[in-house]
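Much of the work behind modern protein science is quiet bookkeeping, done one molecule at a time. Below is the pair of lines this work produces for a single protein:

***
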Amino acid sequence: MMVLLWLGALGSWLFVVTFVLDGWTRPGYSPVRHPVSALALGPRGWLQTANFILCGLGITAGSVAIADTLGSVVLAATVAAFGVSLVASGVFPMDAMRAYPPGTPDETPVEVSMRHRLHDWAGVVVFGALPLAAIVAAVVLPEVGWKWYSALTAAAALAGFAAFGQAWEQDRPRTGLVQRATIVVGWVWLGFLFAYAAG
């Protein structure tokens, strides 16, 4: 169980480290404007695709141990849904748009592929399951500190998801930054949750 929990923790934290470093060093990519998912496009897109899939698998594996160590099947199920949807986000990459990869028209296509729609649906589950997991953790975990940390994470993640959705629809110049802030808050909390469960 300990190995699974640390796989979950590493998957959570490694996901953040990978997209931060890749986004900073990717030619033609703007971490401030473009979403993390756009890193799965272009010649180096395999790196973010692997990031989605491998980290999602690690988190999903870790969720199995949460049910046993923290005694909550509901918490384990929400974390598992998050992990599986992260994998799906890698299997179904978004379409090229908004000037990335370089040479792509700087606009949002009127029509998108089924692959892109599947990516969007997976994203809704990703950004919905994580705050739900934090809410469940705030209820089931016994320590007051963890209850508060989880509740604040849930509130911040929900607010961030709403802000990102609005920024994306309006193609605001700091859309990527809003999404990154939301991801860092949620994924770091999840990594610490796995570490806490590992004791």
In short: The two ends are 11 Å apart (CA to CA). The chain has one domain: 2-198. The chain has six helices and no strands.
